[in-house]
Design the sequence.
């Protein structure tokens, strides 16, 4: 698509880190085709699963592919703007369309205005100045009271005579019904043409076979005889094949008649003549060259079928016989083979159940011409119904089109935070937070594979309303707070856009940073969690070992075995560990010594510097990820085609997820009668501060702040570490060591 040349002046606003077009007039909507689609926020959206009128989206989806694309939205806006005198009316988003707002200067506008007036007249609102959506959707009810509604489908009651209705009922019985706009079953021209073509083919086919003695050796009884022969054909062929094998080798007779153990397998239970095991046995006892008996000595499961063969096929073609030879069987199948071949190629199977005589009566009647005349009369109303349908379409666009543009061309509703966007399904309350960015999903696993690229903390939830057993899946973005208490299995409440509440349970989590504050404490929490897991793991292993020893003692009746001796430590490894520990202690001692030499006011700064040195890498990584947090992959995984990097920065994310806070003016009672007994941390702190101050005074760090009588050098004299060591003078006497 080439970039359009725009003569229209556009205005933009910045939100989400990119420029978005500001739609603030009907002229903006009318010139959407001139807005470069590179500046559109989205280029396609699904036609279902949105908090938007599904019927409006269906009218807009002209190619019925389940998606609304940019060209379809442009076509809808241009059509609506062309039928209104003032396109600014679309910005009112009113469900009521004033009649004087319709542009009757064009033929289409005049036709639409006339249709709107006709609808109001039918509803008894002749003097109404506007048509509402409720009025416009009553078109089908209006046509339900008439014989015809312009859809080319004629219901049974549209026929004036019983004979025509009977033929229409036969068409529906053979080919199924079509449903018209009034939800009534009927027939259309395609079904009528298909039915009469099949009926003619079936009638012609039977006419060619009538009087043919080769095809119908038994006349009208031939179809029944062929069915009786086909029912036993496989078993009779099996019987004669077994008899031939018995003639070939007498040793096979026992196996061909089934051995005694085969009978024992099913005779222990209750039997019926139609037992599956019995059906699989031969028709009669196998012997070399033995004819097939038709009366006595038969497998009970096949006695009725062979009786039908004898009465319907053998007796009419071969005479009274109590047994059937293999040559007789070949003769019977040869006599009925032409009919079987003819029946296999029979056309018009869909209408055959009516019988050839009924089909001939229908073909000889004027039913087809009458039905087609009814269909033609119905189609005459198609332009009228189309015009009335256009009224509903314009009323819906008058109400919904501007809102869709503000959720498609731009994301004004989403970033404006005055109203929820059409992709926001509701609000999830969980872990003392409310999440506004919630979307319904069809497949959480498939959605998560794409949405993970958004860099957002996502929680997938299964929601159910137990009163109605309704279910849905949704994904909620947590963009404020922390993730300490979020885990699979946690329950919350989801409120949809209709205000209905659902029980929500987290089933999957896509982990990403939520805030800088969370990242600051993350290293320490991970360290504590690792220590707790290791302690729990060792305690669990020790408990399992103790339980195992106790189970052995109980099972054997012996005293409780002693615990296994501790593993011997490799001296080399012990020496290495000692070296590491000593090095670590020396390093810590040096750090502590350096810390004690700092002035008192620098000590808190040093502690803060150490904390920052540990936390800053985690905070930097979180900051980088939060800068890239993007709405696009979340929507794309739901079928959208987002055309911009719609960011969810920290301030905007805080508005999407609200953390619990006490209301203004609330009063708090901080006394908890069930609080755990607190340790005297204040006393511990006072002792620690006292020790630090004493150490600092001893080292002389406080001498500059204290009066002379309280300085460590004054109190301790030469014993004070801060007291300078006197140097010997030039006239100092030299003390010689005593001689031995």
Sequence:
């Amino acid at each position: 698509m080439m970039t359009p040349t725009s003569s229209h002046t556009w205005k933009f606003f910045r939100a989400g880190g990119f420029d978005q077009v500001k739609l603030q007039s009907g002229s903006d909507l009318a010139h959407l085709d001139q807005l470069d689609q590179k500046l559109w926020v989205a280029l396609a959206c699904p036609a279902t699963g949105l908090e938007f009128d599904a019927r409006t989206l269906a009218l807009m989806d002209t190619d019925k592919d389940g998606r609304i694309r940019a060209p379809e939205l442009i076509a809808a806006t241009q059509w609506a703007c062309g039928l209104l005198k003032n396109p600014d009316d679309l910005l009112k988003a009113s469900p009521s369309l004033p009649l004087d707002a319709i542009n009757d200067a064009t033929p289409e506008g005049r036709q639409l205005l006339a249709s709107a007036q006709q609808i109001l007249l039918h509803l008894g609102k002749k003097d109404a100045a506007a048509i509402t959506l409720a009025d416009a959707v009553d078109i089908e009810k209006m046509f339900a009271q008439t014989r015809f509604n312009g859809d080319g489908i004629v219901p049974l009651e549209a026929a004036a005579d019983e004979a025509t209705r009977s033929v229409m009922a036969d068409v529906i019985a053979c080919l199924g019904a079509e449903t018209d706009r009034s939800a009534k079953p009927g027939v259309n021209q395609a079904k009528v043409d298909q039915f009469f073509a099949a009926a003619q083919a079936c009638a012609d086919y039977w006419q060619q076979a009538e009087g043919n003695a080769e095809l119908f050796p038994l006349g009208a009884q031939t179809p029944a005889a062929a069915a009786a022969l086909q029912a036993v054909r496989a078993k009779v062929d099996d019987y004669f094949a077994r008899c031939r094998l018995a003639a070939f080798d007498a040793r096979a007779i026992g196996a061909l008649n089934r051995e005694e153990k085969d009978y024992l397998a099913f005779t222990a239970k209750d039997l019926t003549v139609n037992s599956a095991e019995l059906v699989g046995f031969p028709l009669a006892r196998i012997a070399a060259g033995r004819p097939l008996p038709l009366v006595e000595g038969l497998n009970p499961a096949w006695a009725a079928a062979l009786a039908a063969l004898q009465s319907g096929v053998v007796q009419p073609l071969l005479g009274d016989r109590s047994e059937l030879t293999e040559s007789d069987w070949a003769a019977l199948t040869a006599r009925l083979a032409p009919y079987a071949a003819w029946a296999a190629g029979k056309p018009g199977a869909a209408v055959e159940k009516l019988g050839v005589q009924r089909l001939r009566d229908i073909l000889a009647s004027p039913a087809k011409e009458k039905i087609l005349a009814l269909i033609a009369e119905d189609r005459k109303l198609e332009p009228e119904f189309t015009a009335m349908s256009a009224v509903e379409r314009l009323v819906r666009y008058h109400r919904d089109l501007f809102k869709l543009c503000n959720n498609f061309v731009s994301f004004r509703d989403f970033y404006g935070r005055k109203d929820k966007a059409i992709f926001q399904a509701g609000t999830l309350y969980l872990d003392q937070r409310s999440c506004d960015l919630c979307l319904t999903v069809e497949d959480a696993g498939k959605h998560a594979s794409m949405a993970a690229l958004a860099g957002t903390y996502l929680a997938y939830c299964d929601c159910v309303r137990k009163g109605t057993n309704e279910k849905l899946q949704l994904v909620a973005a947590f963009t404020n707070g922390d993730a300490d208490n979020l885990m699979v299995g946690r329950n919350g409440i989801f409120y949809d856009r209709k205000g209905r509440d659902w029980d929500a349970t987290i089933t999957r989590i896509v982990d990403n940073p939520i805030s800088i504050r969370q990242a600051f404490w993350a290293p320490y929490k991970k360290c504590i969690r690792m220590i707790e897991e290791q302690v729990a793991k060792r305690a669990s292993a020790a408990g399992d070992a103790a339980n195992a020893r106790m189970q052995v003692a109980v099972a054997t009746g012996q005293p409780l075995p002693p615990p296994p001796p501790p593993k011997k430590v490799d001296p080399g490894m012990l020496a290495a560990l000692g070296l590491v520990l000593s090095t670590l202690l020396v390093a810590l001692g040096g750090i502590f010594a350096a810390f004690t030499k700092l002035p008192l006011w620098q000590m808190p700064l040093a502690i803060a510097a150490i904390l920052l040195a540990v936390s800053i890498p985690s905070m930097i990584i979180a900051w980088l990820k939060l800068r890239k947090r993007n709405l696009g992959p979340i929507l794309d995984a739901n079928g959208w085609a987002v055309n911009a990097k719609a960011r969810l920065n920290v301030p905007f994310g805080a508005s999407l997820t609200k953390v619990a806070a006490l209301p203004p003016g609330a009063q708090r009672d901080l006394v908890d009668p069930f609080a755990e007994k607190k340790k005297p941390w204040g006393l511990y702190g006072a002792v620690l501060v006292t020790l630090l101050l004493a150490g600092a005074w001893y080292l002389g760090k406080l001498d500059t702040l204290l009066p002379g009588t309280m300085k460590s050098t004054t109190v301790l004299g030469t014993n004070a570490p801060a007291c300078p060591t006197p140097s010997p003078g030039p006239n100092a006497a030299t003390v010689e060591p005593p001689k031995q």
In short: The first helix runs from residue 26 to 30. The longest strand covers residues 501-510. The mean pLDDT is 83.
